[in-house]
Amino acid sequence: MNFLYQVGIYLYRFVAALMSPFNEKARYFSKGQTSVFGELKERFPMEGDVVWVHCASLGEFEQGRPLIEAIKKQYPTYKVLLTFFSPSGYEVRKDYAQADMVAYLPVDTKANARRFLDLVQPRVAFFVKYEFWKNYIDGLSARSIPLYLVSAIFREEQLFFKKGLRGSWYRQVLSGVDHFFVQNQQSADLLGAVGLTNSTITGDTRFDRVAEIAAARKDLPIVAEFKGQSPLLVVGSSWRPDEEIIMPYLQANPEVKIVFAPHEVKEANITRLMSMAKGQAVRYTQAAESDLTNARVLIVDCIGLLSSVYRYGDLAYIGGGFGVGIHNTLEAAIYHIPVLFGPNYLRFQEAVELVSRKLAFPVDSEEQLRQQLDALFESTDRRAAIAQACSRFMEENIGATQKIVQKVFNNQ
Q1: Digit-coded pLDDT (tens) for 5-43
Q2: Fewer CB in a 10 Å sphere around the end CB: N or C, the chain?
Q3: In terms of one coarse class, where is the protein primarily found (predicted)?
């Protein structure tokens, strides 16, 4: 298994280089891999203890970010190195000010892991959620550098918990983690069943992040003016399949207004969405007061506003559930409003929990969406009850970051 793993890593790097002339993501990845050691050599060793935080991509960064910012606030002499595996994480967050350096993670070969750790010499390492790079884990363990997995979540079908050679090999990888900070009891139980009792249930650090975002939310007069006294559905991070089941509801319910904040804000996508609205839409960046009074749809054609837009909604719909998976439900739930999304949500613990508490509602068709929206819009009492329950749910889950910081750094 070790041989196959090493070969797989080299093949991945080779294929990415081969695809780089034809694929933007592969091109960024290959370029980053080529330059990363030169950049690290220029910056290291840093003065002071280095805390290494590794995230696969943007989603994991949102879980690692509260931890980074808590460390920088409480231990200002520590230096934080933030690494990404995916270009979609690195390219968006390469200028993140709270990290002392942001870099690609060199691919997980034995030589790369050894060279990386020789340069960086971290005091402690945090991997976020799903990252299990064997050579880095082995290298940290050999140097007695503590490794913590944060916001981790495990499922029974994962290879770690299977019988046979592959399961045994993957469990051996897990054994190199010093402590698991897991999201739920099921994850702790699965680890315990294979002899890994070094876990603490702390929940998901994203709850802390969305609470911070909500506390710093922006006032958006354009959205407030657009809503007026109308019932408002905010559609966040939408894709075409989401939009196609929502637009008919707009046509059938003239009293309802909708804000679309699509996942993709390129001009071609905004133009397509404007066309779907059949002359009833106005773009956020071009909105005038007279337009807002008569418009039924407001399209947010810029980034950075969605988390503040949700506060104006009576209901929220989160996109992605008819594709690879839903986007961030917590950004909406922090405002204690009912949340709807497509059927592909089961990999997201917070969404599963919201559904189990009847605070979120999955839909798989235009008709099911219509039924749920009608029921929720028509009952202010039901929405008020959901708001109270959602408030309790958020309060129960906020605080994971500080639990992690206290356990890690108070024990050193």
Answers
A1: 888 888 888 888 888 888 888 898 999 999 999 999 999
A2: C
A3: membrane
The DSSP code sequence of 11-27 is: HHHHHHHHHTTT-HHHH
* Distance of alpha carbon 318 from alpha carbon 334, whole angstroms: 13
Tokens 């709270």 map to which residue?
Answer: 98
In this structure, the answer to whether residues 47 and 185 fall within a common structural domain is: yes
β-sheet bridge partners, residue 128: 150
Q: How many angstroms separate the CA atoms of 106 and 104, rounded?
A: 6
Comparing CA positions, the residue from 126, 222, 227, 143 lying closest to residue 177 is: 126
116 lies in the same domain as 36: yes
In degrees, rounded to 5, the angle at the alpha carbon of residue 223 between the alpha carbons of residues 221 and 225 is 65
Question: Is there a single domain that holds both residue 208 and residue 250?
Answer: no
Residue 109 is part of which domain span?
Answer: 2-212+399-409
Nearest 5°: the CA angle 287, 288, 292 is: 75
Report how far apart, in Å, the C-alpha atoms of 118 and of each of 35, 112, 148, 255 are: 17, 10, 19, 63
User: How many distinct structural domains can be found in the chain?
Assistant: 2
The domain that holds 285 is classified in CATH as 3.40.50.2000
Cis peptide before 45 (omega within 30 of 0): yes
b/e burial code for range 229-240 (CB count within 10 A of at least 16 → b): eebbbbbbbbbb
Q: What is the DSSP string of 70-82?
A: HHHHH-TT-EEEE
Residue-wise pLDDT for 128-158, tens only, equals: 998 899 999 999 999 999 999 999 999 999 9
Same domain, 231 and 332: yes
3-class secondary-structure state, position 283: strand
